[in-house]
């Protein structure tokens, strides 16, 4: 399929209206209704957040970790939409997740790093997403393989899903690194040359794995002209049930966003 270079999609429209990088914030995981609503109210108060994220189904590396509250959390996200007034996004890993999320009015879905690695899983998702019209964000695979990331985007495009964004969350490496997942910036840059029509969003939370790295990683992404940032936000980060070391309060998120220097956008 020929994909035009400039596409009119959910994400490109948001970018054109805003004229600034998109900002996505919310907890790693939805834990309780109160925690979801407190986070949503906190990030909404910042005035510049475009989309609320929360993991409901959490594919964790090892069994025994918190694997998400499951579908009981979907009505909490509905309250974020209707009572707080932010569109919401969740991670989906199976066609059943897609169906349940869409039944509950979730606005945007994303495919996580542990799913992007599996072409059969991505194909099943592409088939389930076809014709739904829901925008989809695709995280890079956990391993530094840009072809797998590109392959996932191609599977979605071939299924007619063109409302796409790519999320750079870093790559696992065997060698010790200051990062939780090495950014390996040349890989997302290579993806962008192959998919110039797909907005590229940086996830400094999963790249850094530590609160103090959020600012420098986010700044680097903005310097490279990324189209957006996704930053994990929790009202009580130290007690978060997943990714506690990397989450920040909504107030701290506001400070980080204020400290960032924005380039004049090229498009
Ligand atoms: C997440 O966004 O919380 C998550 C699990 O991310 P990733 O798929 O990038 O590991
Ligand atoms: Mn997380």
From TrEMBL:
GO terms classed as biological process: chorismate metabolic process
Superkingdom as given in the UniProt entry: Bacteria
EC number: 5.4.99.5
Keywords recorded for this protein, A-Z: Transferase
The name this protein goes by in its record: chorismate mutase
A single MF term (Gene Ontology): transferase activity
Primary enzyme class: isomerase
Plastid found in the keyword field: no
């Amino acid at each position: 399929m020929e994909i035009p270079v400039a596409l009119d999609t959910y994400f490109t429209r948001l970018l054109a209206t805003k004229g600034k990088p998109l900002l996505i914030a919310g907890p790693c995981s939805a834990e309780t209704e109160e925690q979801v609503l407190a986070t949503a109210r906190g990030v909404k108060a910042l005035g510049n957040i475009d989309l609320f994220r929360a993991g409901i189904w959490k594919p964790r590396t090892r069994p025994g970790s918190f694997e998400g509250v499951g579908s009981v959390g979907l009505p909490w996200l509905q309250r974020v939409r209707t009572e707080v007034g932010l569109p919401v996004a969740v991670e989906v890993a199976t066609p059943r997740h897609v169906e349940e999320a869409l039944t509950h009015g979730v606005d945007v879905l994303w495919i996580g790093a542990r799913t992007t690695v599996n072409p059969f899983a991505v194909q099943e998702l592409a088939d389930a997403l076809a014709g739904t019209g829901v925008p989809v964000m695709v995280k890079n695979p956990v391993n530094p393989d840009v072809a797998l990331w590109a392959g996932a985007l191609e599977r979605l495009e071939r299924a007619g899903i063109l409302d796409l964004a790519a999320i750079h969350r870093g790559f696992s490496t065997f060698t010790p690194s200051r990062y939780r997942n090495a950014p390996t910036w040349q890989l997302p840059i290579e993806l962008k040359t192959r998919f110039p029509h797909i907005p590229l969003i940086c996830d400094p939370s999963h790249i850094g794995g530590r609160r103090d790295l959020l600012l420098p990683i986010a700044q680097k992404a903005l310097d490279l002209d990324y189209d957006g940032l996704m930053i994990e936000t929790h009202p009580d980060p130290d007690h978060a049930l997943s990714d506690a070391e990397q989450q920040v309060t909504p107030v701290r998120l506001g400070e980080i966003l204020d400290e960032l220097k924005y380039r004049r956008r090229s498009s």
